[in-house]
Design a protein that fits this description.
Layout (H helix, E strand, L loop, with lengths): L2 H13 L2 H8 L3 H15 L4 E4 L2 E4 L1 H23 L6 H4 L2 E8 L8 H10 L3 E8 L1 H10 L4 E5 L7 E10 L1 E4 L3 H4 L4 E2 L8 E3 L5 H7 L8 E3 L3 H10 L3 E4 L5 H6 L3 E6 L4 E9 L6 H19 L6 E3 L15
Parallel strand pairs: 3-4, 3-5, 8-12, 9-10, 9-11
Antiparallel strand pairs: 1-2, 5-13, 6-13, 6-14, 7-11, 7-12
Helix pairs in contact: 1-2, 1-4, 6-12
Organism: Paraburkholderia panacisoli
Family: Belongs to the LysR transcriptional regulatory family.
InterPro entries: HTH-type_LysR_regulators, LysR_HTH_N, LysR_subst-bd, WH-like_DNA-bd_sf, WH_DNA-bd_sf
Length: 321
């Protein structure tokens, strides 16, 4: 048994698929299957239960997975603790990859980028824009250090820290009948085709929770195209108002509050709990938190409500530089 096998096992356990884990690890599926077969033979236990669509951990596999998380976390911490540094400022160097939901401009503001550049000139921050499902997979694979996700699904190897709750709006063409509306009832969303991302996006789950009958859905995986189609009158899309702010200001669309019930989602920052955050990643995480907090408290993000958890270390100030 070695760390390579343990890492491979952890990816399979999280992704519940040999095929997807092999793709993330850039090895062939037969080679990955052979690694796991040798591991099971060495441990003299069955780690996975094969299913029609993937694999599940056995009871023994789950217990082994919990120990593997500790081993991987301790190993990464060991490397980090004994990496030479010539001073705190020099330690904040390198590259940090951050995944941001569409549109990324809500988070990667000029103010945030200027703060990072001025305070940490040796730090390179790479922002990647995408829908939550893709960002989740990239985070698990190690392609990202940090990601902002909407209502992330429970994960065994990711740490999730809630940032804020954000209201969702019906984005539609500013027709005469719509302009006179102050809001739209949730039950009336099904009267018009809905322009939504493919499953398993959280918007699909939120719409499902309304139990609308005979809903026609146009599946579009582009926020800009969703807004453009809504402006044409072909249907209604559901997004935070801030995601469509440019189109709202130009008069291309209007954003109607959704009531009875109000639709909202939780905005969360996530990172791996088997790869300790580098100092650079912790700095970027803190800058993101401060930027989001400023935007909400200053009124730039009027439809967001900050979530502050008591005794949550994420909201504590970073140590002095």
């Amino acid at each position: 048994m070695d760390l390579k096998q343990i890492r491979a096992f952890a990816h399979i356990a999280e992704l519940r698929s040999f095929t997807r884990a092999a793709a993330f690890l850039h090895i062939s599926q037969p080679a990955l299957s052979r690694q796991m077969r040798l591991l099971e033979e060495e441990l003299k236990m069955k780690l996975f239960q094969r299913q029609t669509h993937g694999v599940e951990l056995t009871n023994e596999g789950l217990a082994f997975f919990n120990r593997c998380r500790e081993v991987l976390s301790n190993f990464e911490q060991l490397k980090q603790d004994f990496t030479p540094a010539k001073g705190a400022q020099l330690a904040v160097m390198g590259s940090v990859s951050v995944g941001l939901p569409v549109p990324a401009s809500r988070f990667a503001t000029p103010r945030l980028l200027a703060a990072a550049r001025d305070a940490y000139p040796g730090l390179s921050v790479r922002f990647v824009e995408g829908f939550s499902g893709l960002l989740h997979e990239w985070l698990i694979s190690g392609s990202l250090d940090i990601a902002i996700l909407f209502e992330p699904r429970t994960s065994k190897i990711l740490t999730s820290k809630p940032l804020l709750m954000e209201n969702l709006f019906a984005i539609c063409k500013p027709e005469k009948t719509r302009r006179s509306q102050a809001f739209i009832e949730a039950r009336d969303l099904g009267a018009t085709p809905l322009i939504l991302p493919h499953r398993p996006h959280i918007l699909r789950e939120l719409v499902d929770s309304l139990h609308l009958s005979h809903v026609e859905v146009m599946e579009i995986d582009s926020a800009s195209l969703m807004i453009e189609l809504a402006s044409s009158g072909i249907g209604i899309t559901i997004l935070p108002r801030e995601s469509a702010s440019h189109a709202v200001r130009s008069g291309d669309v209007i954003a109607l509050p959704i009531l009875n019930p109000t639709l909202s989602w939780q905005v969360t920052v996530c990172y791996s709990n088997v790869r300790p955050l580098s100092l650079g990643a912790r700095v970027v995480l803190d800058l993101l938190r401060k930027e989001i907090s400023y935007k909400v408290t200053s009124g730039e993000w009027p439809h967001g409500r900050l979530i502050r958890t008591e005794n949550d270390e994420f909201f504590e100030d970073m140590p002095p530089e």
